[in-house]
Amino acid sequence: MSGPSDFQPTNPALRWIERRLPIFGLMHSSFVAYPTPRNLNYWWTFGAILSLMLGVQILTGVVLAMHYTPHADLAFGSVERIVRDVNFGWLLRNMHAAGASMFFFAVYVHMFRGLYYGSYKEPREVLWILGVIIYLLMMATGFMGYVLPWGQMSFWGATVITNLFSAIPYVGDLIVTWLWGGYSVGNPTLNRFFSLHYLLPFVIAGVVVLHVWALHVAGQNNPAGVEPRTEKDTVPFTPYATIKDMFGVSCFLLLYAWFIFYMPNYLGDADNYIPANPGVTPAHIVPEWYYLPFYAILRSIPNKLAGVIAMFSAILVLAFLPWLDTARTRSSRYRPLAKQFFWIFVVVCVLLGYLGAQPPEGIYVIAGRILTVCYFSYFLILLPLLSRIEKPRPVPNSIADDVIAKYGSKTAPMVSAAIMLAVAGALFAGSTQSALAEQQDTPPSLKWSFAGPFGKYDRGSLQRGLKIYKEVCSNCHGLSYIAFRNLADPGGPGYSAAQAAAFASEYKIKDGPNDQGEMFERPGRPADYFPSPFPNEQAARVANGGGLPPDLSLIAKARSYERGFPWFIFDFFSQFQEQGPNYIAAVLQGYQKTPPGVTIPEGNYYNKYFPGHAIKMPQPLSDGQVTFDDGSPATLPQYARDIATFLMWAAEPQMEARKRLGLQVFVILIIFTGLMYFTKKKVWADAH
Amino acid sequence: MNPDASTIAAGAPIEVDLTPIADGQDIKVFWRGKPIYIMHRTKKQIEEARSVQVSSLPDPQSDEARVKEGHDQWLVVIGICTHLGCIPIAHEGNYDGFFCPCHGSQYDTSGRIRQGPAPANLAVPPYQFVSDSKIQIG
Lengths: 688, 138
What we know:
Chain A has helices at 12-20, 23-31, 46-65, 75-84, 89-117, 125-147, 152-163, 172-180, 187-218, 237-262, 292-300, 304-316, 321-324, 336-356, 362-389, 399-404, 412-431, 459-471, 497-505, 537-543, 555-558, 567-574, 579-589, 636-651, 655-683, and strands at residues 35-37, 234-236, 508-511, 520-523, 605-606, 614-615.
């Protein structure tokens, strides 16, 4: 809004509108003619990236909301239905889930950029505080969004975080009951979280408008921290910044697409593929990665109320930054001490994130406390101190001079800090893997036909796995998210529609009531789902010595194990995500005689790979139990592979479509990125 | 936004029959969405609970104050860890009481916090003995 434009559209219709609502002039002055500093680097593209991500989340979210049911009994199933049956539902879901992580990744880069270059300093204090408000709103939105699928992590994360408010003296419990709408996290809670999750992104959009307005009043900061003075210091936003942002966005989209199409569950928790159970607490409750540093700070303080205050203070302290750091030099480029401490601070944040995912025992607790002190010291002690004692280097005379001048090479402390950052980042990335119980042998890594970017399900293996399920597993385990028609779907076992119908008709399905008001049985149809062997949980437990055989539809995604350092880094690039099938195959073959000195409770069996080693299920498969028509050997290892492959398909029937579309998107994105790169270079040729 | 009428009604008091719970056993029932442990304590467990010096406890409370007079063998506690809300496991931990797997809090045979980050003892819900073998919770 401070751009130099008395813009008049040439088109008479547009001129008519412009006279009554000068929106074209506003767009022109804000995003076309708007003078932007010539020396901005790529850290400045993240504002545009964030706007894009907000738009993407709102669009995908609105469409998802057309298919999602916010009821405790139906939510989990509705999400599975979106992924399995809604046209491109899997794509929408992956975009929205990965989108949340990418949104937070971009916001952290954007915030660290602000920290480094002093973008919070006068006259941009209000701009910065609006940003902190946006960040808080994002955290609330993200938290509530994660509750919606109503998995185990959704439910227990909601329980832990809403319980935080009980720390408030006198009114704490009243507030928590009011938040819950009941006596515990339950259906009223889910409903209201859905309402607010739909609302807050539009509140965020409103605050973003204020944020961009405040930005345009002060003008953008730049890497030199020197305000523009002459016309030589700036270039018009379009085409310079527009094209550069498009290139930045394109690179960002490549990373985003990697998650959507090839590693959709890398940042998630396997436990969230288990429907919420208020009676069973998961062994490790871990929030999503973008909350981990604050979770670590919360757990560092042994007092409940103090921990809550510390956690919220860690975010609120950001709002006071303009008054904590009063150094006159804006950019840390010219503040050698501030620069080093900045990178150390980044490492502190990453390490806090790593600790947030570890069990709060032993050395992790001590490290958490030390790092919490470091975190607060940076804002409350170090920055005010540096404002007083630091001798900054001279800043350039103007932005134009800055563009012409050469920059110094990286100083040694920066390099070592960067190495520390890489190590810390690697540790942190690993912490996003689900940390399962310590008492677990790591299953051997088998080769799977569906692994990797071009993986496909082996049709023969799927058909053999189906036979094993039908003859053995289905006696105790349900498969309730698979319908008979899925057997004829592309990317599946490859039966024809007629074969699927014939398969279905062998089953007896309960239906009714008929006109007499009675329930009756009829042969299955393709639209029916695999029936469960027991009518309810209690019947299942009675028939299985008190144990509950889990439904197998999602088991290949609901089970995982830690890969350890440095494998989880390679996994991201090699697309390893076959922990589930490896685990299933290992457990089926892992029954052994109880080792000496180990006691197994009555009614259980020793299994090498089952966490805790005591499993209630007796060995279900042994050689010769199931015979195959295609000549495959009737051996336990063969069964283990085939049933694991079948269960992977049951958990993700759309995998082949996902990888196929992923390849197409990647090819297009790479070409687009290349084109944008050369376009950007051409446009900027005269500005540099 | 406070609990609506149907939620409050679903939270009406429940009756639990204690006869099937043998000496040393415990069951878990749900009331108002919360798990409630009903523990039939052995003589040993009662003694262990009573032999501790109350003032040394993180949240001082005598065992007698947490059970009903004349029914010392019955412990009724809400099975929610007072730290951050996970469900502790019964008959685990160093005190043969409850052990919370989330952050390692340990409670004794009276449901009192002994070690770990939890600040308070396991809450005792409102309940009364309708007869010697039946309680009403709520």
